[in-house]
Design a protein that fits this description.
Phosphatase 2c, domain 1
Length: 245
């Protein structure tokens, strides 16, 4: 059984440049989250195109596969570049993207930028996507610690996004995962994960009976930690796969 909940909020900004979406095709599911970037108020256009193209590709193919996920990411990138060429006011719009596809036996995910996917098994964090950012590169080089990413002065400097010409695909697709019992997934923008650490994510997960309860309890922490700051847009998608509560 798959259960899910989607959450997005502008934070303290006038404009919400995040977009989220989901689609079910039979027993297969697709979830996608994009965090738009760029001037002239076009970040939400880029993120909207990203979500639309991923969902559309999944819907047209009628199910999930690694090939479908790759085509979805490429179609989103192509559509954003085409919009830039047709609308000069959107020439610098870009977006991150993280997408999750769940089949009857296998689970796939892909990402580009610093919107993250966290994978939990039996209530414990097993894996997360690695940001395409300057701080994540510094972690890989051993120059800073993982926990320093959240407050690093260059945390918003991204090395890969949709909306910049690619010579080859710049997104990453994770190794396929077998679908089993008691799995949970969190897709979220940086406005969300910067204000809650992984220990709190797990603590909230252990107490939650539904994805909505999980996201709402995490949102309380995000809002508390973001108090008295210029909070960015924040978005999250919570997914439970055959989870026992």
């Amino acid at each position: 059984m798959i259960s899910h909940y989607l959450l997005t909020d502008p934070g303290k900004r006038e404009n919400n440049e995040d977009n989220i979406g989901m689609y079910q095709a039979g027993n297969d599911y697709c979830f996608v989250l994009c965090d738009g970037l760029g001037g002239h108020g076009k970040g939400e256009v880029a993120s909207g195109i990203g979500v639309e193209q991923v969902i559309m590709t999944f819907a047209e193919e009628g199910g999930s596969s690694e090939e479908c996920l790759g085509r979805a990411m490429m179609r989103a990138q192509t559509a954003i570049l085409e919009k830039q060429r047709s609308d000069r006011s959107a020439f610098d719009m870009k977006t991150t993207c993280v997408a999750l596809m769940i089949g009857e036996e296998t689970i796939w995910w892909a990402h580009v930028g610093d919107s993250r996917l966290y994978y939990f098994q039996d209530g414990r964090l097993e894996e997360r996507t690695l940001d395409h950012s300057v701080p994540q590169m510094l972690v890989a080089a051993g120059q800073i610690r993982e926990k320093d990413i959240r407050h690093h002065p260059d945390r918003n400097r991204l090395l890969r996004v949709m909306g910049i010409e690619w010579d080859d695909p710049r997104y990453q697709i994770a190794e396929p995962l077998e679908r089993t019992r008691d799995q949970a997934f969190l897709l979220c923008s940086d406005g969300f994960w910067e204000l809650i650490d992984e220990k709190k994510m797990m603590a909230c997960l252990k107490k939650a009976r539904t994805p909505e309860q999980w996201l709402r309890s995490m949102e309380e922490i995000v809002l508390k930690n973001g108090r008295n700051t210029d909070m960015d847009n924040y978005s999250a998608i919570g997914v439970f796969v055959d989870r026992e509560v």
